Amino acid sequence: MMRVVAATRRRVGLGTWSESATWPCYRNTLDRSCLQGNFPGVSASGGKASASGQRLFGHSRLAPTPLGRRTTALQNQGDQLSLSLGHQLTVSPQHGQILPFSSNGGTEPGTSQESDHLETHTETVMMAALEKKLGSTFSRKSTLPSPSPLLIVISGPSGVGKDAVINRLREVHGDMHFVVTATTRPRRQGEVDGEDYIFMDKEDFEDLIERNELLEHALVYGDYKGIPKQQVRKALGKGTDVVLRLDVQGAATIRRLIPESLSIFLVAENERALVRRLLGRKTEPLDRALVRVETARQETKRIAEFDYVVENPSGKLEDTVRKISSIIEAEKLRMQQKAIRI
Ligand SMILES: Nc1ncnc2c1ncn2[C@@H]1O[C@H](COP(=O)(O)OP(=O)(O)OP(=O)(O)O)[C@@H](O)[C@H]1O
Known about the structure:
13 strands; Rossmann fold; single chain; nucleotide-binding; binds adenosine-5'-triphosphate; 4-stranded mixed sheet; 2 domains; 5-stranded parallel sheet; alpha/beta; P-loop_NTPase
């Protein structure tokens, strides 16, 4: 037999009834005849439900009143209200609400006390009545289908802020895997091997290519960059979303190999801002910066190939990260999700 314990008087219908005239039988004590006439499907002696009980409970929640005396009276009576359904209610004024208890006094296996905390006394009783009528219990399992992990590609021209955005995303989404790209380019000041990039020499990188251990790789401005396959496979296998940072060419390769991936193109507010950002980084001489700017012009023409375009305006990195988070959140709610295979 299931017992239901009404825990706080403040949350429980009993503890918040109004003393208004709409509750004629409610006085200083809660007597059984009153309950019998007004609990839907509940009585102290197996009586029938009344529709007025539901209305009054609703009313009482809108007009809460302290109920020390009443609940004490109830407690003194040691009331255990038998549901006409064969369930039991134990009303306790000490805590905030009603919890279902198994016959051995513990919570039912697989139930969520957290969601029960939101239930009022009336709701619990009415749900028990509905469950009885339907002949089955209301599931506490999530109604949402479990989402497939996403493969998110963040791309855009050099200097647009891919690293800056990803570094901030990493702080916000600790539950995602951010692929560490392998590269042969020299380490910049402040970069940490294995965290920002996996820095390796050309021979080691070419060995990875030969062993087909890279999901994608390219020669960028004279240096190799590539995505170690194993890292991605492992994270997706655990159901973890994976974020890749790729140049525009690399993003195109991933789209071709994995059409189910989600691609986001970052842009600065305008070309001038992009160039300022590139120069401000002071990581390369003017001739190399010129190549990057020319390439950026070509790459920006490929915006339409991407699923989303997100502006990363100067000084508004947080907004950019928020927009990307919204995209990810929406994508996870898609009905038609395809599993990603590598
Ligand atoms: N929203 C922003 N506002 C101002 N500065 C920014 C913003 N986003 C990035 N930056 C700065 O712009 C410069 C370039 O950013 P970042 O290195 O992240 O670009 P990137 O796209 O990763 O470039 P590359 O592809 O060449 O590695 C950095 O100095 C970075 O701090």
